Amino acid sequence: MSVVTQNSPQQLVLGIESSCDETGLALYHSQKGLLAHALHSQVDLHARHGGVVPELASRDHIKRVLPLLNEVLHQAGAQRQDIDAVAYTAGPGLVGALLVGAAIGRSLAWALQVPAVAVHHMEGHLLAPLLEDPAPEFPFIALLVSGGHTLLVDVKGLGDYQVLGESLDDAAGEAFDKTAKLLHLGYPGGPALARLAQQGNPQRFRFPRPMTDRPGLDFSFSGLKTHALTTLRETPEDATLAADIARAFEDAVVDTMVIKCRRALRVTGRKRLIISGGVGANQRLREQLSLMGQAEGAAVFYPRIQFCTDNGAMIALAGALRLAAGDTENAGHIDVRARWTLEDLSALPMPA
C-alpha cells in the first residue's frame, strides 16, 4: 500500500539510513508502496566497547551501503537506472555516519541524474506508521521514543510539527540502556532489560513517575536511573532482585509516557496517536497505550516492530512524500546536521 496519492507521478525512491549504528536501505514506489528493504546492524561490532564508537560506525557504513543497495534492487527486481530519486538521512545523528549516507546518496543521485531529498531522521520515525495498513491520517499526536530522543509532537501535516514536550535529560531509550548497565545486562541494554522485566514482581518496588504531578508534557528519566542504583545498593541481594528492579523501572517509564500521552490528547483534542522509535517496540508500552487509547476514544498506531528501530523504509517513505510535495535539492550539495529540531522543518502541501 502507498500513502502517496494516486495522482502523483510513479516514482521509485531509494532510502538510505546511516545516522548511528544501523545501515538501512529500502525502495519505495509512489504507487505500489514499499518494494524492498534491508538492514545491517552494528550491534556485534560495538558490543565489545559497551556502546557505539562513532569512527567504527562510519567505517562500517562505508562497507555496507552498496552491498545493501544491490540486495534491495534484487529484492525489487529493479536496476539502478530504475531509481527516480534518492532520499537520505541528513540528521540528527553522528556526523561521520551521516556523511557516509549523504555522500553516497548524493553521489548516486548525481550519477543517475535524479533528485536527492534530505530527510530528518525523526521525521522518518514519525512517518513510519504510514507504512502500515491502515495508515493514520493527519493530524495526530506522535510519541517518538528512542535512545537519543523522547518527544511528544503535534503533527498537523507533512513538515508541520509542533514539539509539545521532550526529555529534559536522558531520553527513554538512554535511561533503559544505562539502567541495564547497572544491572550488568550487556549491550544493547534496553531490550535485555525489557526481557528481564517480564520475570519481575511488579509489587515489590514502586519507582516514582517523574514530572507527572505537575502541568506540562516534558519528561525526565535520569532520576529513575538513580533510583534504580539506590535500590540496588540498599536492598539485600537475592535471586530476583535484578528482575524486580527491571520491572519497577519499566513500569515507571511506561506509566509516565502513558500519562503524558493522555494529557497530550486531551490538551490538543486529537483522536489519533502514533508511537515510533526503538522504545516503541516495547510490548508493555504498546499494551498500556492501546488501553489508554480505548479509554480516551483515540486510535493508536504503531509501525511493525522491524520499523521501530532505525531503517531505510521510513527514509524512503519520507523522501517519497517530500518529493511528491516538491521538496528536492541540488544533487551536488552535501550537508548534514548533528542537531536538528523537527520545528526547523517547513510545512509542505500533501499532493492532491
UniProtKB/TrEMBL annotation:
EC number: 2.3.1.234
Xref: InterPro entries: ATPase_NBD, Gcp-like_dom, KAE1/TsaD, Peptidase_M22_CS, TsaD
Reaction(s) this enzyme catalyzes, per UniProt: L-threonylcarbamoyladenylate + adenosine(37) in tRNA = N(6)-L-threonylcarbamoyladenosine(37) in tRNA + AMP + H(+)
Keyword set includes Zinc-finger: no
Cofactor binding note of this UniProt entry: Binds 1 Fe(2+) ion per subunit.
Keyword flag Transcription: no
UniProt KW keywords: Acyltransferase, Cytoplasm, Iron, Metal-binding, Transferase, tRNA processing
Alphabetical GO biological process terms: tRNA threonylcarbamoyladenosine modification
Listed PANTHER family: TRNA N6-ADENOSINE THREONYLCARBAMOYLTRANSFERASE, TRNA N6-ADENOSINE THREONYLCARBAMOYLTRANSFERASE, MITOCHONDRIAL
Name of the protein in question: tRNA N6-adenosine threonylcarbamoyltransferase
Gene from which this protein is expressed: tsaD
